[in-house]
Design brief:
This protein is of the alpha+beta class and about 160 residues long. It has one domain: OmpA-like domain (60s Ribosomal Protein L30, Chain: A, 2-Layer Sandwich), CATH 3.30.1330. The chain is about 45% helix and about 15% strand. It contains four helices and four strands. The chain has a four-stranded mixed beta sheet. The longest helix has 21 residues. It is globular and about 45 Å long. It starts with a helix and ends with a strand.
C-alpha cells in the first residue's frame, strides 16, 4: 500500500511540475486566447523548401502553401485584435554562424531575408496589413522533429505576437 501511495505521489508531483513549467494562456483575456488559438492554426502552415543560404521563395512549395494556407493567414489578419501583429518569422539551419562572419552573411540575415521574401509574396497576393511584420531568428528556434543542421529547419513560420 505504501508503494502504491508513493507512486501516486511521484506521479502527482511530476504532473504538477510539468503544468507549472508550461506556458499557460490567460483564459480571461480574449485577445490572448485569440493569439493562442491562431498560433495553433498557423503552426500547421509553415513555408518550407528553402535552399541553403537562399531566401528565394520556392515556387512549387509557395503555390501549394498559398492554396491551402493563405486564406488562414488572411482570416487571422482580418480578426487581429488591437495590440497584436502577425509576425512572419524566418528560420535557418544551424550549419553556419548566426552573425555575419567574413563573406558569410550569417543565419540571422538569411532568416530575415526569408521572412521578408514571404512577407513580400503575401503582399503580392493581396494579403497586406499594417499589422503584419517580419523577423529573422536564425537557428535559435529549431523544430523538435529534425536535426538542427537538417534542411527542414530552413522555413518561414507565422505567429500572432504582442505589438512591440
Amino acid at each position: 500500500m505504501k508503494k502504491y501511495l508513493l507512486v501516486l505521489l511521484v506521479i502527482g508531483v511530476a504532473f504538477a511540475l510539468s503544468c507549472a513549467g508550461s506556458q499557460m494562456t490567460d483564459v480571461s483575456d480574449p485577445n490572448a486566447m485569440f493569439a493562442a488559438t491562431s498560433n495553433q492554426s498557423l503552426a500547421k502552415v509553415p513555408v518550407k523548401g528553402f535552399d541553403y543560404k537562399s531566401s528565394k521563395v520556392p515556387a512549387q512549395e509557395w503555390d501549394q502553401w498559398a492554396d491551402a494556407a493563405a486564406p488562414v493567414v488572411k482570416g487571422i489578419l482580418d480578426k487581429l485584435p488591437d495590440g497584436y501583429v502577425l509576425q512572419v518569422t524566418g528560420h535557418a539551419d544551424a550549419r553556419g554562424p548566426e552573425e555575419r562572419m567574413g563573406a558569410k552573411p550569417g543565419n540571422i540575415k538569411i532568416s530575415a531575408d526569408r521572412a521578408k521574401a514571404v512577407y513580400d509574396a503575401l503582399r503580392r497576393k493581396g494579403i497586406e496589413s499594417p499589422n503584419m511584420t517580419y523577423k529573422g531568428v536564425g537557428s535559435s528556434e529549431p523544430t523538435a522533429d529534425c536535426d538542427p543542421q537538417d534542411p527542414c529547419q530552413r522555413r518561414v513560420t507565422f505567429k500572432v505576437v504582442p505589438k512591440e
